[in-house]
Amino acid sequence: MLPRRPLAWLAWAFRGPPGPRGACAPGAAGAWGRRVGPRARRGCCTAPGTPEVQLTQERYPVRRLPFSTVSEQDLAAFERIVPGGVVTDPEALQAPNVDWLRTLRGCSKVLLRPRTSEEVSRILRHCHERNLAVNPQGGNTGMVGGSVPVFDEIILSTALMNRVLSFHSVSGILVCQAGCVLEELSRYVEEQDFIMPLDLGAKGSCHIGGNVATNAGGLRLLRYGSLRGTVLGLEAVLADGTVLDCLTSLRKDNTGYDLKQLFIGSEGTLGVITAVSILCPPKPRAVNVAFLGCPGFTEVLQTFSTCKGMLGEILSAFEFMDAECMQLVGCHLNLASPVQESPFYVLIETSGSNAGHDAEKLGSFLEHSLGSGLVTDGTMATDQRKVKLRDEQEDCPIAGPLEPEVQPPVSGNSAKSCVE
Amino acid sequence: MLPRRPLAWLAWAFRGPPGPRGACAPGAAGAWGRRVGPRARRGCCTAPGTPEVQLTQERYPVRRLPFSTVSEQDLAAFERIVPGGVVTDPEALQAPNVDWLRTLRGCSKVLLRPRTSEEVSRILRHCHERNLAVNPQGGNTGMVGGSVPVFDEIILSTALMNRVLSFHSVSGILVCQAGCVLEELSRYVEEQDFIMPLDLGAKGSCHIGGNVATNAGGLRLLRYGSLRGTVLGLEAVLADGTVLDCLTSLRKDNTGYDLKQLFIGSEGTLGVITAVSILCPPKPRAVNVAFLGCPGFTEVLQTFSTCKGMLGEILSAFEFMDAECMQLVGCHLNLASPVQESPFYVLIETSGSNAGHDAEKLGSFLEHSLGSGLVTDGTMATDQRKVKLRDEQEDCPIAGPLEPEVQPPVSGNSAKSCVE
């Protein structure tokens, strides 16, 4: 079928919205400049001049359970377990007490920074014996308040547990401590021609242990599946200090119940994840991004089916957002749509091993979609500008700050607009 | 790099081994004709004239736990729960009492054939109250004796629980009862341009519930991952009759602990899986198979790395076997290697959406591998004969009847030779 009109093969360029930027984005949102992307921004929530966040215990009707409070003897014990890793400075404790969205604030007076699973085990054993509450914390980039204390829980930070333990260059299996930052792991495995099986906006700050503990989905879920399939093993320390070693690196291990699965997505409620073994796919040699306008939700679904058929194995992301979401992104982030106004927008990413083959497949798909009316306008990103299209999609939660914890079944990726 | 010699682009043809076939395959193995493949064979283990299998309780020092025995009142109760679904005929009970390898035999006197989860629940509740032991059974194709009773356990067959409950043609999510036969499901989803994410030799008899209960890997693990990622939900009935409904069909569901994972691979020890929700990938439009000879294990690993890089997203299987395994296959199954004798053999399968692109990628890879000495001989299957190469690989366990329950980390698929 011939396309009804030629595809707009324009290089993607960010244009400012017509009205003044401040008009629709007052307050905190207005302070977000374009080039301070989520990656850099996360973790910077306590910049000087930012108004103080109300305490969670004052904002919500929560009740502290009868845990003990940290004594001088406890601090001395912690200092013996993690020499130099006990933080009690109130200023240093401000940031880890507040969540990234700045809606929740705890009043923890101690943060511990262990370096090994053994230290985590000794800390938890002590806390268990003393009936002290503990709040594990990774990069503190979560958007549902799970990474900050509600009251005065001890914050157990994985920040110094950031060593890669092994990487197998044939199988692509990475074993590392829980505190490794996702972006650093990405760089590490990319040097060896692999990629991490997950990628998300907070990658510059988030820890792999936190990703696993929250069962993060991210931008590569459609292609590489969920962490339930790619995490091959993990090590966790239970509340009483028991170290649970499930750090296998077998792709199929039927030797008993798969206990590690209980920890994936458990958000620290069953124990502290201290190390993970994860399967990294080979690095694709070619990545293309297309941004399309769709006339309706039916066409979004049909476009999804068509592109699964025509792009097949190279399809690595399919995301959509509605007109309202695009408007919010435009208002808050000084961005405008690269295609004509539409009820729905679709972002398609392909990742493959042969640039020529991929471009041919994507070209055929785009021509077919435009020709059959599934898509009313479209643009394909070129080279260095590809990532910017991606950035816009990653930034959606900033415009409407709710994070989906349940993915709708019709989309394999972060269909943010329909849950915001 | 130029290849040292041209690739043998021969169509694959099965040749008989030089010696008389019976010489190396006496007894049961000798009775296996070439065209009675594992798919047809499984379930035919009690053909007339086959010698009786020794009772498990006589062969091994096992002790019956103090369970009750089935009474007339129990049979009447079962008849009320599953009218017409209570089997007590000794002849009909012969086959379900013996495992596929014919090494184990129970002496169950009752087999129940429920059609719904509710019936399974009522059966188990009754057995729980009466302290009766139960042995769930799917297609009885397992090779580790998990599907047959040890003593006189009641066999709870899923054979009549074979309804497809729903299929979503956009997302490819299939929801079906546990007793659906894998091959029938494959046919069903293939009609709608999808495939099942797993495929294995026993597909003609095995039940999807049994596949999930044993966490079957199979021939598509490398491409589509394990059932831990593709099974989105399941329904199970616990020993006391409680129905556990985790039959979600969301790709990412973080609403609590992922309890279904405990049942995947639990082999019926935690409950009876009665329904599953599974994610089916789109059907590839082109499939190619290549069979290669490798001079050593180091070259096998290097070939794996090279082919992951060069074939990338279209690589759907990489399997290897050693010379001894090939010899056994040749002896027992009247097959000969299509390539010259080598210390190791590698089978590569590609599945993609564009036949031309795939052939080009595979051709480049094969030329490179031959040129660099990683591979000493190779052949690529053509059209209708492709599946025969696959059959040979599927038949490996027949030649040396041990099934790997742990996959070695260097191979993503059923590297049978190294565990047999």
Automatic annotation (TrEMBL), chains A, B:
One of its GO terms (biological process) is carboxylic acid metabolic process. PROSITE patterns: FAD_PCMH. GO terms for molecular function: (R)-2-hydroxyglutarate dehydrogenase activity; FAD binding. Its EC number is 1.1.99.39. Residues 104-283 form the FAD-binding PCMH-type domain. It is an enzyme of class 1 (oxidoreductase). The keyword Cell membrane does not apply. GO terms for cellular component: mitochondrion. Keywords: FAD, Flavoprotein, Oxidoreductase. Residues 410-420 have a biased composition (Polar residues). Catalyzes the oxidation of D-2-hydroxyglutarate (D-2-HG) to alpha-ketoglutarate. Also catalyzes the oxidation of other D-2-hydroxyacids, such as D-malate (D-MAL) and D-lactate (D-LAC). Exhibits high activities towards D-2-HG and D-MAL but a very weak activity towards D-LAC. This is D-2-hydroxyglutarate dehydrogenase, mitochondrial. The lineage of its organism: Eukaryota, Metazoa, Chordata, Craniata, Vertebrata. The gene is D2HGDH.
